[in-house]
């Protein structure tokens, strides 16, 4: 089968959605299929130059209505990617297009019609990607506009996949009203368990030297985009009451300045290291050095974290996952068995868990082993590829 992944975000790039696409592509190839990716990074040459020029002309909108500017800017990008898709379809055999966001499904179908089946994977809910949703009223209005636009994708796809049960159920609310015969599935996120695996003793020791962390200290990591829904501030606040532990925060975003100010104001520089966006060697060392992974996500406008890929990566590496008990996270974690769930927005609970674990090496070892086992059995990229193949086959035959 020849599968084309199509998205208006950057691939490869930092973030769970990009990891999902790349790991699924690798899983499909490993199972004897062909797979390719068209993303925003596919836009190059003359098309890229024209795209940048068009965005220059709408720059004044930034100062009038930043949300309108955002929508117009994305539309320009979407049209540029569609040109790349048009050329690709002309020169390659494609059995199915796997759109990774609603607007990409709409633009793909606009180009290929019913000649190539299009499926949709929902990494979040209908509307703007969760990383861009803010608490303010303007942000909510923007979300509602994008949501109404994205719901049109229901009319053009042959199947929808939600990456957790809550997202699937949200999709079903709209499909039942608009197109009840459309199949909707749940396939949880997954990772490449050959890439993400526990560090050796030497790798862990070398990683501590890389970050200049004393051997006696435990290490927690939080690799998240610094935005409202990821709740990173609560991981930072927890460190006020945690002893003998260093928190490494890997990520950037709109909340960086407020988090940096909080660290300074509360004299947490010796406990919290803000590393900015991480990839390559830095990310690899973070995964090697960590004893704990924190995923303190919160609910924003009623929307919650899906089955977080960063959480699955951490579990695959044998870290103890401490996560908010919301959305897909509570499907991933069996509290006290393969990780720990806490209430959202509860820095106190995070600190209590960390302090307790710091004095219980056996509990750390038990949770670590169970976390790795869970991912191998349920969330490997090969298992994910086989599940998607069933959906793709059904869509082609429909």
Describe the structure.
The chain is α/β, with parallel strands linked by helices and 398 residues long. 48% of the residues lie in helices and 13% in strands. The protein has 16 helices and twelve strands. The strands form two sheets. Strands 2-1-3-4-5-6 form a six-stranded parallel sheet, with helices on both faces. It has a six-stranded parallel sheet with strand order 9-8-7-10-11-12, with helices on both faces. α2 (45-57) runs antiparallel to α4. The chain starts with a strand and ends with a helix. The model has no long low-confidence stretch (mean pLDDT 92).
Notable traits:
6-stranded parallel β-sheet, alpha/beta, globular, 398 residues
Low-confidence stretches: none
Provide the residue-averaged pLDDT.
92
Strand order of the largest sheet: 2-1-3-4-5-6
Count of alpha/pi helices: 16
Strand content: 5-15%
Number-wise, the strands total 12
* Helix/strand order: EHEHHHEHEHEHEHEHEHEHEHEHEHHH
N/C terminus separation: 16 Å
Instruction: Give the CA-based shape.
Output: globular
- Backbone structural class: alpha/beta
Q: Please state the CA-atom Rg, rounded to the nearest Å.
A: 21 Å
Helix share bin: 40-55%
Largest sheet properties: 6 strands, parallel
């Amino acid at each position: 089968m020849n599968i084309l992944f199509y998205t208006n975000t950057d691939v490869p790039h930092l973030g769970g959605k990009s990891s999902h696409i790349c790991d699924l592509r690798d899983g499909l190839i490993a199972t004897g299929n062909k797979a390719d990716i068209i993303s925003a990074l596919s836009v190059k040459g003359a098309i890229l130059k024209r795209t940048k020029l068009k965005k220059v002309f709408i720059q004044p909108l930034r100062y009038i209505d930043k949300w309108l500017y955002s929508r117009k800017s994305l539309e320009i990008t979407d049209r540029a990617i569609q040109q790349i898709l048009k050329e690709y379809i002309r020169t390659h055999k494609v059995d199915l297009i796997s759109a990774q966001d609603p607007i990409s499904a709409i633009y793909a179908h606009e180009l290929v019609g019913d000649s190539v089946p299009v499926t949709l994977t929902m990494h979040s809910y209908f509307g703007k990607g969760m990383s861009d949703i803010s608490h303010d009223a303007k942000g909510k209005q923007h979300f509602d506009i994008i949501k109404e636009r994205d719901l049109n994708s229901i009319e053009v796809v042959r199947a929808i996949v939600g990456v957790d049960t809550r997202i699937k159920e949200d999709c079903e609310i709209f499909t039942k009203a608009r197109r009840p015969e459309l199949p909707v599935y749940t396939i949880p996120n997954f990772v490449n368990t050959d890439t993400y695996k526990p560090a050796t003793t030497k790798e862990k020791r070398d990683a501590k030297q890389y970050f200049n962390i004393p051997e006696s200290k435990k290490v927690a990591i939080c690799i998240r985009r610094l935005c409202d829904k990821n709740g990173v501030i609560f991981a930072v606040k927890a460190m006020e009451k945690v002893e003998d532990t260093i928190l490494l925060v890997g990520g950037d975003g709109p909340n960086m300045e407020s988090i940096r100010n909080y660290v300074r104001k509360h004299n947490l520089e010796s406990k919290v290291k803000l590393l900015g966006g991480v990839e390559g060697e830095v990310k690899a060392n973070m995964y090697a050095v960590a004893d704990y992974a924190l995923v303190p996500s919160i609910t924003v406008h009623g929307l919650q974290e899906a089955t977080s890929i960063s959480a699955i990566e951490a579990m695959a590496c044998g870290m103890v996952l401490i996560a908010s008990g919301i959305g897909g996270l509570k499907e991933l974690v069996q509290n006290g068995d393969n990780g720990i769930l806490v209430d959202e927005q509860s820095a106190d609970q995070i600190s209590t868990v960390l302090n307790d674990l710091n004095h219980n090496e056996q509990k750390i070892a038990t949770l670590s082993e169970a976390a790795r086992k869970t991912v191998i059995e349920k969330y490997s990229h090969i298992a994910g590829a086989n599940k998607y193949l069933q959906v793709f086959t059904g869509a082609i035959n429909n």
